[in-house]
Amino acid sequence: MAWAESIVSVLRKNNVRFLNYVPDTKIEKILEAARQLGGFEVLPLAREEEGIGVVCGQAIGGGRGVLLCPTAGLGNSINALASLAIPYRIPCPIIIGVRGDLGEFNPAQVMMGQATQDILGALRIPTYRITREDETEKLTDGALRICYASEGPVAILVTNELAGWKEGKERK
Amino acid sequence: MIDRTEASKYLVGKLKDELVVTSLANEKYDLQSCGDRARNFYNWNAMGMASSLGLGLAMARPELKVIVYDGDGSLLMNLGSLTTIASREPKNLIHIVWDNRSYAMTGGQPTATAFHTDLAKVAEGAGYPKVERVETLAAFRQAADRALKEPGPWFIHCLMEEKPVKGGGLPSPTAIKQRFMDALGVHH
Fold first, then answer.
1. φ and ψ at B14, to 5 degrees?
2. C-alpha distance from A41 to closest chain B C-alpha (Å)
3. For residues A128 and A119, what is the distance between their CA atoms, to the nearest angstrom?
4. Euclidean distance between CA atoms B27 and B71, whole angstroms
5. CB B14: neighbour CB atoms within 10 A?
6. Which of A65, A80, B25, B127 could form a disulfide with A55 if both were Cys (CB 3.0 to 4.6 A apart)?
7. Can you tell me the mean pLDDT for A109-135?
8. Could you give the number of structural domains in chain B?
9. How far apart are CA B23 and CA B48, in angstroms?
10. Contact criterion met (CB below 8 Å) for B61 and A62
């Protein structure tokens, strides 16, 4: 996956060391590209909210980390963003694998997927949607720049237009 | 039952370059009033986040001991973090949990530890390799001394008696962060 390799090489270029994640099929492609490149420290989480705390802890210690999670996981993270990353002004990049959008088969993914951008907007979190492979590097790099400049959370949405949708068992 | 203020005085007296992150609850005021220091990161209101913040910090600064100053209500909100910490096994992490069996900041409503939940057993079950349960100041001192010397991750479950806390009044979140990072000589 060229887009996943682009994301990982931009993370490397920006000195991101820690990949903290809750898995998702899109996130797995990024993790696979990271395993190929090597040199990252990968932390599996039980819940995405933990990831906000972990990224913030890494940041105040002088290390750069990102949270990788699906859209549903953003829902699990809101108060940690609002009470930690935002008021303390801690850079917290979040790479979100989009569910509940184009081609979704699972009815219970749709609401969170559709609400994601409004929720991020309500929190004034700069949000960048990657829909094409050839814009992946620019959007990821630009998002990380504003993240460290503004010292706050930034969201990067890995969309179904870019990465395809998950095939699943259709409803009866 | 331990007097948390007395125990905090002892711990603060032992600290050198260790980093401390707190929960949002009253233990942060004890820590502050027993000897405010730049290497303390006080948590205004990030519910349940102390243990996760401590893990991230322990990963970024493996050469320094990181102390999480947590409470029963706070930890109960983020119990999953125990499994994440135990799996990652940061040897420099000391997780101290003050258990007063209540939500002291909101009127003393009982937490699960007032009923059947034993947080030391939960930590053991999650896979923490070093777990101590302490009920006296002497036992707390002994556990803290060992944890500061020996590799962890440590979980020190402290049974305490809730009393009114002194102190209070924190700097702004950004001032807390900046002072902490300046003490470490790091920037984003």
1. -90, -15
2. 9
3. 14
4. 7
5. 12
6. A65
7. 98
8. 1
9. 7
10. yes
Note whether A67 and A20 are within 8 A (CB).
yes
Q: Please tell me the distance from the alpha carbon of residue B148 to that of residue B97, in angstroms, as a whole number.
A: 15
Domain count, chain A: 1
Domain membership flag for residue A27: yes
Find the distance separating the first CA and the last CA of chain A, reported in whole Å. Answer: 32
Q: What is the span of the domain harbouring residue B172? A: 4-184
For the residues A49-76, what does the mean pLDDT come to?
Answer: 98
Which residue range forms the structural domain that includes residue A8? 2-161
CB contact under 8 Å between A54 and B48, yes or no, is no
SS3 B100: coil
CATH number of domain containing B100: 3.40.50.970
Out of B60, B80, B188, the one facing A57 most closely (by C-beta) is: B60
Query: Which tens digits make up the pLDDT trace of B72-114?
Result: 999 999 999 999 999 999 999 999 999 999 999 899 999 999 9
Rg (CA), chain A: 15
Residues from A in contact with B at Cβ < 8 Å? 18, 20, 41, 43-47, 49-65, 79-80, 83-84, 87-91, 148, 151
* DSSP-derived secondary structure letter, B97: E
Residue A133 tokens read as 């492979």
For B188, other C-beta atoms within 10 Å of its C-beta total: 16
Q: Tell me which residue in B21, B81, B188 faces A50 most closely, judged by beta carbons.
A: B81
Specify the pairing of strand B102-103 against strand B109-110: antiparallel
Give the gyration radius of chain B's Cα atoms. Answer: 15
Cα-to-chain-centroid distance, residue B111? 18
- ipTM computed for the complex: 0.97
